[in-house]
Amino acid sequence: MPEQETYIPAPSRPSRADPTLQQGATGEAVRELQMLLSRAGYDPGAADGVFGVMTKTAVMNFQRARGLTVDGIVGPVTWAALRGASAPEPVPVGGLRSKIVEEARWGLSNAGGIHYKQLRPMDGIHQRRKLPLDTDCSGFVTLCYKWAGASDPNGLGYNGQGYTGTLLGHLTRVPRSQARPGDLVLWARNGRGEHVSLVLEPGSDPLLVSHGEESGPYTVRFSVSHRYHAGADVYWLRLPSVDGAVREGAPEAPRAPPPRVSGESDAPSEVGLSREAEPPPVRH
User: Fold this and answer.
1) How far apart are CA 204 and CA 44, in angstroms?
2) What is the 3-state secondary structure (H, E, C) of 121-158?
């Protein structure tokens, strides 16, 4: 039977009670709630102090996992459970994932020699780390997988074809909260792929490697890139074989019909975004 909300003093606030929060609430207490949810591995969206739909969904998922009353209302029991929730262990990035990320980092380091062109067959498909390189967003992520030794994320056996439509049709969709380095995030509008980036660092606002215009590739936060694709559907995508898994059965969401692939490519869709890009993270 789910545990009911009864008063339990919050361990980190002995001098006062935590406020009861629900959808529509705003303020610093909501911001703290959002940060605690993110720490526990539940994505509430941006920590903006606004208790919206995403925050309520994260609260309900947390309550469900902890055996609490699943109502999306944060009372003393939920507060206490959140403060007692340890941060999830970081998932080690090894094998193919680390190699895919390394290829993307190479692209960042050599952005001056990489240009945005819609070429098929893909430039560089048979020559690792070719420079100069002429490619588009889907071509760039495909090359990261190819050069790392992974299977073709388009499902085409690296025949030089592929675009956002083949990526969307072939890869497995995962929740944003489960995205890992080397996964892809793809925007589509009215069933048509618009842009794809590679996840460099997951989290509440994942850091992406994006090649969305001539000045790419560059690093950019998901929230910044998403503004350039307002109104588009977002898909977080994974190639199961990267982790040694074999996809079985139908995915959770229905797949797009097999797209026409001969000569298909992706136009630049983030012109000007590089001005808001972040410097690549320094590794120690």
Assistant:
1) 8
2) CCCCCCCCCCCCEEECHHHHHHHHHHHHCCCCCCCCCC
235-248 pLDDT, tens digit per residue, is 999 999 998 754 43
Looking at this protein, which amino acid is placed at residue 173? R
Domains of the chain: 1-89 (1.10.101.10), 95-276 (3.90.1720.10)
Identify whether 217 is preceded by a cis peptide bond (ω within 30 of 0): yes
261 vs 100: CA distance, rounded Å: 24
Structure tokens at 211: 């090649």
Q: Tabulate helix, strand, coil % of the chain (nearest 5).
A: 30, 15, 50
Residues with Cβ within 8 Å of 187's Cβ and at least 6 positions away in sequence, in order, are 193, 194, 195, 196, 226, 229, 232, 233, 234, 235, 269
| 62-84 average pLDDT score | 88
Please tell me the distance from the alpha carbon of residue 30 to that of residue 32, in angstroms, as a whole number.
Answer: 5
Q: Which is it for strands 192-201 and 184-189: parallel, antiparallel or unpaired?
A: antiparallel
Q: How far apart are CA 101 and CA 183, in angstroms?
A: 9
Q: List Cβ neighbours of 243 (8 Å cut-off, separation of 6 or more).
A: 95, 96, 97
Classify 192 as helix, strand or coil: strand
**What are the φ/ψ torsions at residue 130 (nearest 5 degrees)?**
-65, 135
Interval 207-217 mean pLDDT:
93
pTM score of the predicted model: 0.62
pLDDT score recorded for residue 269: 63
